[in-house]
Amino acid sequence: MKLRLALAQINPTVGDLAGNAALITQSVDQAVAAGAHIAIFPEMVLTGYPVEDLALRPSFQVASKSALTALATQLDKSIVSIVGYLDQVDGKPQNMVAVIAGGQVKARYAKCHLPNYGVFDEFRNFVAGDSTLVVRIHGIDVGIAICEDLWIDGGITAQLAERTPGLVIVPNGSPYERAKDDVRLALVTKRAREAKAPLAYVNMTGGQDDLVFDGDSIVVNSDGAVIARAPQFEDGVMIVDVDVKAGTSTPDVIISEDSVEIAKPSIPGIAHRLGDEEEMWNAIVVGLRDYVRKNGFTSVLVGLSGGIDSALVAALAIDALGPDRVHGVAMPSKYSSEHSIEDAQLMAANTGLGFRIIEIQKMVDAFLNEVELTGLAEENVQARVRGTTLMGLSNQFGHLVLATGNKSELACGYSTLYGDAVGGYAPIKDIYKTDVWALSRWRNQVAADAGEVPPIPERSITKEPSAELRPDQKDSDSLPEYEVLDKVLKAYVDDDLGRDALIAAGFDKALVMRVISMVDRAEYKRRQYPPGTKVSKRAFGKDRRLPMTSKWREL
Amino acid sequence: MKLRLALAQINPTVGDLAGNAALITQSVDQAVAAGAHIAIFPEMVLTGYPVEDLALRPSFQVASKSALTALATQLDKSIVSIVGYLDQVDGKPQNMVAVIAGGQVKARYAKCHLPNYGVFDEFRNFVAGDSTLVVRIHGIDVGIAICEDLWIDGGITAQLAERTPGLVIVPNGSPYERAKDDVRLALVTKRAREAKAPLAYVNMTGGQDDLVFDGDSIVVNSDGAVIARAPQFEDGVMIVDVDVKAGTSTPDVIISEDSVEIAKPSIPGIAHRLGDEEEMWNAIVVGLRDYVRKNGFTSVLVGLSGGIDSALVAALAIDALGPDRVHGVAMPSKYSSEHSIEDAQLMAANTGLGFRIIEIQKMVDAFLNEVELTGLAEENVQARVRGTTLMGLSNQFGHLVLATGNKSELACGYSTLYGDAVGGYAPIKDIYKTDVWALSRWRNQVAADAGEVPPIPERSITKEPSAELRPDQKDSDSLPEYEVLDKVLKAYVDDDLGRDALIAAGFDKALVMRVISMVDRAEYKRRQYPPGTKVSKRAFGKDRRLPMTSKWREL
Fold this sequence. Notes:
The structure is a homodimer. By secondary structure, chain A is α/β, with parallel strands linked by helices. Chain A has helices spanning 17-33, 58-74, 122-125, 148-151, 156-162, 180-195, 276-294, 308-321, 338-351, 361-370, 375-397, 407-412, 433-449, 458-462, 475-478, 482-494, 499-504, 509-521, 523-527, and strands spanning 2-9, 38-40, 80-89, 92-101, 104-110, 134-137, 140-144, 167-172, 199-203, 205-208, 211-214, 218-220, 226-229, 236-243, 253-254, 300-303, 326-330, 354-357, 400-402. In chain A, helix 7 (276-294) crosses helix 13 (433-449) and helix 10 (361-370) crosses helix 11. The longest helix of chain A is centred in the C-terminal third of the chain and has 23 residues, at 375-397. Chains A, B: One of its GO terms (cellular component) is cytoplasm.
C-alpha cells in the first residue's frame, strides 16, 4: 500500500504565531492540491524555533495553545496535518506535536529527549514527555518522534520500534553544521531499519539568531534506502509516496481506517548535495538575510577597508539582499594605504553597492588633542571612531551595521571592543580566516564561470592582512600565520583539546602556548560580539559558556 | 554526644586550583586549632563555582581530580574534611564532594539534583548522581547532600532521611538574591526535621561574574531550631558544637568509630540580619570588588556626569576598593548643565577619588562636521565619544571601566549602545532607579551617623534625572515616572506577568502597553551590556535567554 506524504520544509519566525499559521495553511493547501494524505511540518513550526526562555512565559504558552486550536479549525479537513507547537501541560511548557484531522487535534506527542548541550537549552525550557504515540491514519500505524528523540540510542525510538509502526514521522529543528548532512542521513537510515518502517524526516529552513536551518528533509524506506531528499536551504513542500504496511499494532488513537489509493505516482527527487564552500556560503547568506528581515531591517551598512573580511561580508550581503540594500563606507585614516581605498571603490564598482568615503583623521585628532593616548590606546581610537561613525549612519538612516570580524581574529582577541566589533550582526564571526579566503575565491569563481564580474577585488584576496592602525602594521606582527593558527584554533576551540593533547598532536609547543594564551584572554571581547551565523560545530557564543572571571589556564 | 563542626565560609576563585587548595588548607588548620572534628567546605570549593562549560573540558576535569588527590595528602590528618570539586567519572563531569580523612579520599558523593533554570546550567555541565551517601565519623552517621539536593521535595534528601543519619552536611554554592536568606532558613529547618538530625548548611562568599555568594551558613538542630548562623558577605570559619546520636544505620563507609569528647564547649553565634539596603549594598560591593580583583585589575574608571547613577557607582567602587583606586572623569558637552560639573567635583572632594575633566565638544563637532547626523543620531554621538574616551583612558592606564546604567533604563533601552553602555562591569545594572535613590540615601545616612562626610552630593540625589544629550532633556520626556515604571518593570520582567495579567493587577492599560513595547524592543542592547551584580531574582542577562529575532509581542 502507498501513502502520499507532504514534507513542508518551511521557514517560520520565532513568536510570529499568525505568520507561521498562515505559512502552515498555505503548505497544507499545496499538500492537498498534490493529493497528499499527511502534511508534515518541522518541530515547533507554529511558534518558530528555538523559542528559548519565551517558552517559560505563561502568556506565550497560552497564546501558542490558542493559535493551535484556531489553526486546527482552519486547515483543510481532507488531510492529516502534523504540526509542532508549544503546549502548556499542568502549567508547564512542552515541546509538542499535534496530529490534526477533521478540524480537530486528535492526538499529541511531547518530545521525550531534550538536548541541553551546544546551542540547545531544552531541559531548561521544556518538561520532557515520557511515552510513545502511535496513531492510525488510513489504516497505517504512524509513530512520531521529535528531533533529539531520534539521536538517542535505546531511547524513545526504541520503544516506538517495539510497537511495530508502519511509518515513522520525525519533525525537526536541526541547525546546520558543517558536514552534518552526512550524520543525519546515517541516523535516519539506522532508525528506519530499527523500526522496520519508512521514516520521514522534516527539517525547517531559515535563520534564527545564530542558527541556520538547512532543510535537508529526507524520506527513507524501511530498509533505510533514500527515497527522496530535499535541497538544503530551500523552502518548499516535498511530495513523496511511501510503501507502507497496514497496521497490526494497538494504536493510541484511530483517526481513519479507510485505505487510500494513489492514481498517479509522484516522482521523488533526491537533491544534489552542495560542496563545502557552497554549503557554507548558503548558510551565511540565509542567516544574514533572515536576521535582517526578521528583525525588520531593510538595509545593511559595512565598513569597507579594502581588506578581505569586509569585502567578503559585502559580497555575502549582496547575495542575501541585493546591491541596492547594501551600503559600504570607506573610512581612511593617515595609516590607510592607497590600495585600501582603491579596493573598496573597486568592490563598489564590481557590485553596484552604495558607497561613500568618510575621512576619520579629524575625529581621531580631536581625541588625541584632548587625551594623552599612545600605542595600543591610540590604535584603538581609530577603530572606535570608525565604530561610532558606522553607528551614527545606522541611527541616521536605519541600516543594520554588519561587523566584519572573522573567527580567527575573534578567537585571539585581535579586534577592538566598541571598534571593529561594532555591529548588529557578524556574518563571518564563525568563519576561520583560511575559510574567508576560500569562500572569496569560490564566490569569484562562480561569478567567472557564469560570465559575471567577480565581486571581490583580486588584490583584497591576495594582499597581506593588516589592520592599518599604525605604519606598516601586519597581522603577522601579532598573530601566527593563519594557515598554522587556524589549525591550532580548530583543535583547541572546536575539538576542546588541552595543552598536552595539542602538543601530543604534533603542534609546536611555543605555538601552542602562544595561541592558548591569546584565546584564554579574549573571552571578554567575545561576550560583547554581535550574533552571527554558526557554521562549525563548536564556536564562540551561545554554544560555549565560560566564566569571564576564571584563573584556569591550560598553560 | 557532641561533635564539633567547622563551617568554612570562604571565597574561592573559579579555575584557581592552587589558590583554592591553599585557602582550604588554611581553613582546615583553623578548624584543627579550634578542636573541630569535621571541616565542611562549600560546593565545588576546589574549582570555584560556577565553572560553567569549563566543566566540559577534559583537561580541567583531570586537573581538578589531581588537585584533589594532592590536597588530600596535605590536609591535617586529625580532622575529616568535606571538600567539593569537579570529578570525572566514566569520562563525564560530576559535581562532587569528597570525604577526606587520614590523607585519603574515603568517600564521594555526586550531586543528584542539577538545577537548570535562572542562572544555573548544571544539567548542561554535569552528570547527575543517583544515590545517597552516609559515612560514619566518630561513630556518627553523617549524610551528605549538595545545594539543589536540599530544594527538591521527595528527592535525594528524602531517601537520605530514610537512612536515619545522625547529622546532615550540605555544601552549597547558593547565590544571593533579595530576601533569599529567609527562604534558605525555612528550607534548612524543614529538611532537618525530615531527617530528624542536625543539619549544617555551608555556603561560599564572594563575587563570580554576575553572581554574589553571601555566605549565611546555618546550623540547626534536629528540631530545626537555629544553633548558629554566620554573617552574610563575610569570610570565616564558624565553629559549632552539635548534639548528635550514635549511628544506628548501615553506613556506606566507616571512617572512625571512636567517640569524641569536647572539653570546653564553643559558644555559637547567630549573626545579625542585614537590612534590605545594607544587604544590597554589600552584595554590589562584594561583586564589584571580586570582579576587579579576580580579573587582575587594580583600579576602576567611572564617567561622572553629576547624576545619581554615576555617583552611586563611584561610592560603591570606593567602598569596594578605596578612593585611591577609583578614578572619575567628567566629560561635559555643550548640553551639560553647570551643576553637572559642580556635582561631579563635589563627589570627588567628598571622597578623595581621582578626578579629571575632559571636554568632549571638539570630538563631537569633528564627527558632526564630517557626517550629517541629527536628532537621536547626534545625541548618540555624544554618548559614544564619552565611551571612546573612557576606553582610551582604560587602554592607556589599565583601569577597568565601570558602566553606570541602572536596570530601569536598561530594561527600557534608554541607553546608547557603545556609549554609556561601555564598560567591563556594570555594578548597578540589576538595580531599579528607585533603589538607586534608596541606596544613595542609605549610604549617605550611614556616613552621617558615623560623623563622616556623606559621599554622594545631595543635589545628585534630588535633581531631576536627565541624559543631557540635548537642551532641557529630561528622562521623563521618554520614560514614565520611575516610581510607576519600576512597579511595572518588576511585574513584567521579574514576575513574568503578561499584558492581560498586568492590566488585571491594576496597572493603567496605556502605561502597560508603553512599558512592554519599550522592554520588548530593548533585548539587543541588553545582550551587549557588561556583566554586573545580580540582585533581584529575575534579571536581564544570564538568567533570561530570549531570542533576539522574535515577533512575539505581548501587545
